[in-house]
Amino acid sequence: MSKAQKYRILIGGGGTGGHVFPAISIANALKEQLPNAEFLFVGAQGRLEMEKVPQSGYKIVGLPVAGFQRRLTWKNFTFFVKLIRSMIIAQGVIKKFRPQVAIGVGGYASGPVLRAAARKKIPVILQEQNSYAGVTNRLLAKHAQKICVAFDGMEKYFPVDKILFTGNPVRQDLLLPEEAGAKSYANFGIQPNDQVVLLCGGSGGAGSLNDCIMDALERIGKSDYKLIWQCGKHYYDSAREALASSGVKNVLLHPFISEMNRAYQVADLIISRAGAGTISELCIVGKPVILVPSPNVAENHQMKNARSLGDKNAAEIVADDEIKIRLVDRVENILNDKEKRGMLSENIRKLAIPDSADRIADEVIKVLEQ
Prior knowledge:
By secondary structure, the chain is α/β, with parallel strands linked by helices. The chain contains 15 helices and 13 strands. The chain folds into two domains: 8-169 and 355-369, Glycogen Phosphorylase B (Rossmann fold); 178-349, Glycogen Phosphorylase B (Rossmann fold), CATH 3.40.50.2000. The strands form two sheets. A seven-stranded parallel β-sheet has the order 3-2-1-4-5-6-7, sandwiched between helices. Strands 10-9-8-11-12-13 form a six-stranded parallel β-sheet, sandwiched between helices. Helix 3 (75-97) packs across helix 4 (110-119) and helix 6 packs across helix 10 (260-266). 44% of the residues are buried.
């Protein structure tokens, strides 16, 4: 296979960082091996991919598609209208771009364009991030040549002969060299000898986690550790008011942390939701973790993701409805137990798959060779 050949590769999907960042990582891995390849992303209008994909240097087309509401609502009428429009646009994209392979990373935006590709006999490869397969990928599975997964037991959802265990691709700049530590500590205004807890509820924040911290500010203020608190832009004003009125000085509030790799570098303990992409990042970071799975997801899949680590003693799990009772106690117990921190760190590192994007890229190249 000639690396000079100009292959056309389509990547469909998005909606959340858990879909977008793996998609970009796969494209980057393919670009390394196929520098002349042409890429086109297809996502959902108004979603994260429409900002992040162009920032990464790739073209993207946005579809008007939206998610189906599980409750009875007038939005489901507009869902069908948007779906039909998206299918028409997707067919036009396939006809104009003429990809030689189509990669689906999940999310409702991948449905119309991957189905359009399959109808034109274009090879399809899917990447499923979660331990509970998304509806779109389950519907597309019959069209796929290979399905790249990150969790065991996915034969419940997909034909076993199509499944490849590749892990989830993560951002390439996740780990910083040790010499970058001084700048990372300075960025957050903390000292290298400080004990640091990082709380991140995702880019949009997490209401229940934020409520828990606001309720516990007085207790946290009496502790010896520093808390880096990413609260999300939506919750920032209320969190800032609560922090100001408490007078607590060891909590460092951020609406959003753009350089998450620096936050990971300084953290001694991380509190996080349990999205699949986040879990894959945390395995590579290798720090002790408390996972608080979001209950507001389909089929409670974040709890399933979390248990895949908890069952291997690679993370602590606190249920969302128990955090006000248990979370701060669990933080203090882990910080005071050096042996436990070492065990959690060692076990989570064993689950890391740092070359996941390259594994998927290799499978795409095999399809192109055929």
